[in-house]
Amino acid sequence: MIFSLRRPLAVLCLLLAPALASAAEEHPIIAKARKFVGEESTLDGLRTLRFVATMSVPDAADTTKKKTVKLDVVFEKPDRQLMQLGFDDRVEITGLDGFDGWHLLQDKSDPPRRRVTILPPARIRRLRAETWENLYYFRGLERAGGTVEDQGDHLVDGVLTRKIAYIHSPTIRFSRYFDPQTGRLVVTETEDGRIIREEGEMVVQGLRFPRTVETFARNAQGVVETVTLTFEKITINEPLPREYFAVPRPRAP
Questions:
Q1: Does 246 reside within a domain?
Q2: Which of 30, 135, 204, 250 is the most exposed place for a label (fewest CB within 10 A)?
Q3: What gap in Å lies between CA 202 and CA 213, rounded to an integer?
Q4: Does the residue 5 lie in any domain?
Q5: Strand extents, DSSP E, 170-243
Q6: DSSP strands (E only) in 77-146
Q7: Strand 172-178 vs strand 62-76: parallel, antiparallel, or unpaired?
Q8: Region 123-130: what's the mean pLDDT?
Q9: Which of 57, 28, 123, 77 lies closest to 237 in space, CA to CA?
Q10: How many domains would you assign to the chain?
């Protein structure tokens, strides 16, 4: 599970490429990793995922303390995402609709008071990559303009793993470390140094999800901070209107 959280926490254009390599050319660990999550027919039929979670984050006023934020994030194939963060005083919503990306900040004490910002191309590319990572389960990045590299065996937490790098662009990379015996995802690393670990288990409509996700990242002072997601509800293939992800229209005066 990959969620981009850097903007609210201050810390979830691609060209079509040649068709996906044949199954014979694919590393066996990818098929095993998909099988660990669920059946091929279920994974192939996945269209949308919705995660409702409680997020424990460092308090901006005192990073030695934690505060709780409500998270509601939806991913829809091929390239749509909507993430809502509920803070004590405000709501922040980040949306992706194809190549359109936006951020909305709304004051809870004065709901009509809100600000919509159009995201820059680099941020949109990041959201597109994260949407792919959450929906396609390790297969087919070549069709989205990226590449997949088998980077050999690596020891992680005393476990021999197989490292597969998912390279969306020169500046966006997710390295997945899989247990070659079971296909279980042991850990994920990003090109900016984030470490992502999944713990526990929830099974929804035959698909296996983690109960919690922990992300470790260094802040501006070089201190490692931890963000913990605890999932409350996961919904698969929820029907959503096309305009759900669209850039919000300005409010009338």
A1: no
A2: 250
A3: 12
A4: no
A5: 172-178, 185-190, 195-199, 202-204, 207-209, 212-218, 224-236
A6: 80-86, 90-97, 100-107, 114-118
A7: unpaired
A8: 98
A9: 77
A10: 1
